[in-house]
Amino acid sequence: MIQDISEKISWLKKHPLILKGIFRGIERETLRIQKNGKFSKSLHPNVIGSPLTHKWITTDFAENLLEFVTPASNNVDYLLSFLKDLHSFVALKIKNERMWPFSIPYCYDDKTNIKIAQYGTSNVGRKKTTYRIGLKTRYGDLVNTISGVHYNFSLPVSFWEICKEKNNIESISSGYLNLIRNYYRFGWIIPYLFGTSPAISSYFLKNAKKKYQFKKNKENIFYLPWSTSLRLSDIGYTSTKITDLNIMFNDLSSYLESLKNTLITPSKKFAKIGVKDINGNFQQLNTNILQMENELYTQIRPKRKTHNGELLIEALQNKGIEYVEIRSLDINPFSSIGINKNQILLLDLFLIWCALMDSPNMDREDFLLTTKNWEKIIFEGRKPNQKIYINQKNETKTLVEIGETIFKDLNKIACILDSSQNNVLYQTVCKKIILFFKNPELTYSAQFLKNFIKKGVKKTGLALSNKYHEQFIHRSHKNFHKNFLEQEVIRSHQKQKNIEKEDILSFEDYIQT
Predict the structure, then answer these.
(1) Can you tell me whether residue 370 is helix, strand or coil?
(2) Which string of b and e fits 39-69 if b means at least 16 CB within 10 Å?
(3) Per-residue pLDDT at 493 exceeds 80
(4) So what EC number does this one have (predicted)?
(5) Residue 235: what pLDDT?
(6) Fewer CB under 10 Å: which end of the chain, C or N?
(7) Taking the mean position of all CA atoms in its chain, how far away is CA 140?
(8) Which domains are seen in the chain, by residue range?
């Protein structure tokens, strides 16, 4: 199941400096809440900038769903410092509110009013809001408030030049697609290690109570004893599965063609909803399978920066894949910013490993096999003697066997990275996290569940949100980026006004272009 990549690791050892140019970026989502834990009723605060145009602070689905975006950097410490400064800046501006430290919004009831994010009167702003109205219409509003952390990762061009012995769009894109296929095959390791959503509110369950053997606490929160990340399950947020859409990652042209088809193919289900309601208000952007590329929810996506209204599909087609976006990270409640350095270092190692290892093309049956493994880990990853499928014949190996085999390679890669940086950071992370396989109680989901059962989710969540708020307020006095962020608030509001002045098309004409 797992190839011997000792030759490739030996090759990497001869070229250790090619990994110095790894760039990373983080996008962290978090709900603004009232001090009692309920959803904030206020709009996105004007004092933290325009969510349409602010480079680093925006909103996701709802007005109270913040999203912090870091610049790309090859310095992990700078990345984490910048993210802390963003949190600190916002905490100072919303002193009477807090940031929810979990992926799942547990403090929700029938009276909760979820306000869809607003981006002003410009066509581009109205399109963003209408897209979100479509998400609510298609999938519901509560499920769209589930939060996560996205990790953006790119290997330096020099890596692909030496590894592939050529540097062109096709070659680099092929390398990233190789990485993506391996992530689907083995990426379930990430929710096993770092998943933190083994419990979920009854409002999400609907018919799932009959399907899974849930236990329940006094707060009417349901959980599965061995679960790791219900956020990634069909109970959490999911759109149409990529296997149903026949979207594969074997080559860039076929991937883009399949994705394009979802954007132009009408859906019978969504056609019944209609584009507008009886009063002429938009219900969704269109009735196609996907309204926009962003509606394709996957564990990992190929990405590229876009400019001046350029569509992602166009950018990828013209210039190839620039980086990958890892979307399978729950918010880490044990970190004030939702992610910690150990997670980043481990992800680095694992993604390099995915890039080094050959990855045969995958067909629908291969994807269905990987889906079974992801589901095993999501719903019962910490189950004693858990087994993983290794081929289409339903042969299995234990999670411990597979995990330890992977970590042998990761530790070798860690030695190479550490030698070029004259430290042992990566090796230390390997030694710490490999213990999670033989002792599942060390995993983040087990730690979460222990606190959840002992103290209750609301009490735990509020205690953490208050603790982190105080840390952010204290940090605000030494926020290196404070003035920079204040200037960005002014710039973002002015840019939104400029955009609104420049519109010449009606909104209906705009969304059809």
Answers:
(1) helix
(2) bbeeebbeebbbbbbbebbbbbbbbbbbbbb
(3) yes
(4) 6.3.2.2
(5) 82
(6) C
(7) 19
(8) 6-14+21-512 (3.30.590.20)
- Strand 149-154 vs strand 98-99: parallel, antiparallel, or unpaired? unpaired
User: 442, exposed or middle or buried, with CB in 10 Å at 0-12, 13-18, 19+?
Assistant: middle
DSSP string, 252-302: HHHHHHHHHHHHHSB-HHHHHH-SB-TTS-BS-S-SBS-SSGGG---SEEE
Closest CA to 288 of 306, 270, 311: 270
Residue 404, token pair as written in the block: 């330890």
In the chain, count H helices and then E strands: 20, 12
Convert the pLDDT of each residue in 431-461 to its tens digit: 999 999 999 999 999 999 998 888 889 999 9
Indicate the helix (H) or strand (E) that contains 54. none
Tell me phi and psi for residue 12, to 5 degrees.
-65, -35
Residue 249: phi, psi to the nearest 5? -120, 40
What does the pLDDT read at residue 16? Answer: 84
* Average pLDDT value for residue range 354-364: 93
Q: Taking 90 as the threshold, does the pLDDT of residue 166 lie above it? A: no
The C-alpha atoms of residue 159 and residue 173 are separated, in whole angstroms, by 13
Local structure of residue 44 (DSSP, 8 states) = S
**Burial 454-487, CB ≥16 within 10 A → b, else e:** eebbeebbbebbeebbebbeebbeebebbeebee
The string of DSSP letters for 435-491 reads HHHH-GGGSHHHHHHHHHHHH-HHHHHHHHHHHHHHHHHHHGGG-TTHHHHHHHHHH
Output the pLDDT for position 207: 66
List the one residue out of 331, 329, 321, 330 whose CA is nearest residue 301: 321
Residue 243 burial (10 A CB sphere; 0-12, 13-18, 19+): middle
3-class SS of residue 115: coil
Answer for the pair 241, 352: CB distance below 8 angstroms, yes or no.
no
H or E stretch at 67? strand 65-69
**CA pair distance 116, 65, nearest whole angstrom:** 9
CA angle 446, 217, 299 (to 5 degrees): 45
Nearest-angstrom CA–CA distance, 268 and 266: 6
Please state, in angstroms and rounded to a whole number, the distance separating the CA atoms of residues 226 and 376.
Answer: 10
CA distances (Å), origin 367, targets 38, 184, 236, 417: 39, 8, 20, 32
- Residue 31 gets which letter from DSSP? E
Alpha-carbon distance 235 to 342, whole Å?
A: 28
- How far is CA 242 from its chain centroid? 17
CA separation for the pair 31, 44 (Å, rounded): 11
The angle, 0 to 180 degrees and rounded to 10, between the axes of the packed helices 341-356 and 157-164 is: 30
Give every CB contact of residue 398 below 8 A, 6+ residues apart in sequence: 385, 386, 387, 388
